[in-house]
Amino acid sequence: MAVYSQFDLIALMAQPECPICRLIQNDVRRFVDGLLYESSVDPSSQQKFRASRGVCAVHSQLLRETRGYSVPMATLYEAAIDEVLSVLDSAGSLPVNKLRRNSGGRQISEKLKPSKRCPCCVTVEASERLYTQVFADGLADHAFVQAFQQSQGLCLTHVRRMMEHAMPQDARTKFVQAQRAIWKKLLAELDLFMARSGERGDGKPVGEEGTSWSRAVNVIGGLQNVFGSEYER
Ligand SMILES: [Zn+2]
Ligand SMILES: [Zn+2]
């Protein structure tokens, strides 16, 4: 994980996405690159990949989009497929309770289940703890608060993480006031977008509010490939 500072967060706040999501996205990509790079030389990474049965459905998409690592990818997935195959092979040796219908099938299903969580989801949570702390510390700095007020704010999940984070009352008040103003502005933009669009729209040219709907998607759902299916909300 790279060490990012308040300055990195200030720079990212000029972009339309949640800055914490953006830093996490970088960390997950870096983690995936490292995993693929190490897979052929580090047998322990293959062991972990067996236990986690690869990565979750959301982070699988990230692996699919990663170019230039097809052999390391094959190495890792060979280990995962070998693991699930050996579980199926052991099916005949499991004791079966004849009184309970399908107890054998359930036992196999349980054994096929990952014994470790998706490593990308684990990376997301570790990065998030770090950046929540950096963000909370930044609220003591005037320039940081100003950049936050002028930004598109944090996504819903990272607002929640900030609310759960222990911080001085005045920092929490500053955070809530700024985030509230940002969401109110977005709501007004969505209203304006709807008033100007569609068949019943008044036909005026669409300005900043033109992207309000896609920014709203990111606010509620977070950025793509960040919150995996094994992320604990
Ligand atoms: Zn976020
Ligand atoms: Zn995941």
Descriptive tags:
233 residues, mainly alpha, 11 helices, 65% helix, elongated, binds zinc ion
SSE topology:
Layout: H1 6-12, H2 19-38, H3 43-52, H4 57-65, H5 70-89, H6 103-112, H7 119-138, H8 142-149, H9 156-164, H10 169-196, H11 212-221
Helix pairs in contact: 1-8, 2-7, 3-5, 10-11
Could you walk me through the main structural features you see in this protein, from its secondary elements to its overall organization?
The chain has 233 residues and is mainly α. The protein has one domain (6-221). Helices cover 65% and strands 0% of the residues. It has eleven helices and no strands. The protein has helices at 6-12, 19-38, 43-52, 57-65, 70-89, 103-112, 119-138, 142-149, 156-164, 169-196, 212-221. Helix 2 runs antiparallel to helix 7 (119-138) and helix 10 crosses helix 11. The longest helix is centred in the last third of the chain and has 28 residues, at 169-196. The chain is elongated and about 65 Å long. The two termini are 21 Å apart. The structure holds zinc ion (ZN) (2 copies). One zinc ion binds at residues 18, 20-21, 154-155, 157-158, 222.
Task: Please outline what is shown here.
65% of the residues lie in helices and 0% in strands.
Named once each, the bound ligands are: zinc ion
- The number of distinct helices, counting runs of at least 4 residues, comes to 11
Q: Which percent bin holds the helix content?
A: 55-70%
Number of strands: 0
Mean pLDDT: 89
Number of domains: 1
Topology order in helix (H) and strand (E) letters: HHHHHHHHHHH
- The coarse overall form would be elongated
Query: How far is the first residue's CA from the last residue's CA?
Result: 21 Å
* Oligomeric status: single chain
How much of the sequence lies in strands comes to under 5%
The main pleated sheet reads as: none
Uncertain ranges: none
Helix/strand structural class = mainly alpha
Rg, rounded, reads: 23 Å
